[in-house]
Specification:
Two copies of one chain form a homodimer.
Chain A (H helix, E strand, L loop, with lengths): L6 E5 L4 H12 L3 E8 L6 H13 L3 E6 L22 H4 L11 H16 L3 E3 L15 H14 L1 H5 L5 E3 L7 H10 L24 H12 L9
Parallel strand pairs in A: 1-2, 1-4, 2-3, 4-5
Helix pairs in contact in A: 1-2, 1-7, 7-8
């Protein structure tokens, strides 16, 4: 990767969506600066995946930042309450689940923005998805548009005009199957990714949470088997 | 303090402005939930001040959250570069200084929002000030309005209508002298606060940074001596 290319900050959880987003940013010629967060998530195994994906994509830098959202409570993903399992498609598509982490994408985009300003980058990528989105409010286009507007008011670079921040959401209108097809076309090795909300001690997916269900369905629609299920 | 009063999250750095903001929120009948950040600031002495002020105000809870912005670089307040000293009023009023921390208030408000949603609070107080503001873009009314709009799009509580988030900025149009007068009227003990960007090893203010200069001027305009200078 040429370090003279324009820089992009890419939010990288280690899941299927963010891995694909990283490779989309690469395909657009950006020098990749990936950022991951240790936020008190139950499934911190994904951070190891993030490191492997970042390496596979040839990033310039991979930043791991600590921000302990679990101290604030309020989510099955950071707290002690159980992750919901074996929900039907109708249940998954209805309402905001207990795995919602209050203001998580606002916090992560804010930290991504801080890093982008320091790097002199104008472009921030996030793998949000409004279709198979499981009901998270901070995955919707109107949220992203509001954050982009905020970013240009919040920063020295935005106010002085040295950067015009753009929040890129290449997956926002894709189905899970389309995301997988896009990732495969760009060379993403999905065996390196982790999507499960509640992985087993050896890191293997539970196969029953909403995230496992959506991922399984996506591969199945393409007539493929998830490499994690092989 | 009655815990049945409506809850407010108050961003509390330990400085003069945030201490006054905390007491303004108290005077409006809110149950106070103060939040402070260990973000890699040089002047972490202010966190001890924050704890004392929180206690003096009778807060329900004081949350100290770690988020290491210094890992991202980009500011004299978190890095190794020198804090500017002995600047004139004209210099202080012109441009964005090296003590600007990229996207700091965006990050802090995001984390305050996360906590507010968990607590079931709709009201968030921040002691930003657009008059003696030293040129920070994230202290302006247009930034605050954009964040308030974002907050209501970003959250489960905002989307479901269980909360209508409001960002309160009681100091935004005040001079430093007006802030000090307001704080004194509400019983703030300014000897507990710390405003200096580069305090001495014993915690005493340097007397020469922009923040010390603005604070000194504010007390002088009221014909008072800062208790920290006594």
């Amino acid at each position: 990767m040429n370090k003279e290319n324009p820089k992009a900050v890419v939010l990288l959880s280690g899941g299927l969506d963010s891995a694909t987003t990283l490779f989309v940013a690469r395909s657009q010629g950006f020098a990749l600066h990936a950022i991951s967060f240790r936020y008190g998530q139950r499934h911190a195994a994904e951070l190891g995946c993030a490191a492997q994906i970042a390496h596979a994509a040839g990033v310039v830098q991979h930043q791991l930042l600590e921000v302990n959202l679990s101290a604030l409570g309020g989510s099955a993903l950071t707290g002690a309450s159980a992750v919901p399992k074996h929900r039907t498609d109708a249940e998954i598509g209805h309402g905001i689940p207990s795995t919602y982490v209050p203001a998580r994408n606002t916090v992560f985009l804010s930290l991504g923005l801080a890093w982008a300003e320091v790097l002199g980058a104008s472009d921030i990528f996030i793998g949000v998805n409004a279709l198979d989105y499981s009901g998270y409010p901070d995955c919707r286009p109107e949220f992203i548009a509001a954050f982009e507007r905020l970013a240009n008011l919040a920063t020295k670079a935005g106010v002085e005009g040295t950067a015009r921040f753009r929040i890129h959401t290449p997956l926002i209108a894709m189905s899970k199957a389309q995301i997988i097809r896009t990732g495969l076309a760009l060379g993403v090795d999905f065996s390196l990714t982790s999507s499960c909300y509640d992985p087993q001690p050896d890191g293997r997916p539970c196969g029953a949470c909403d995230s496992c269900a959506l991922r399984h369905k996506g591969f199945a629609e393409l007539g493929l088997t998830d490499p994690l299920e092989k």
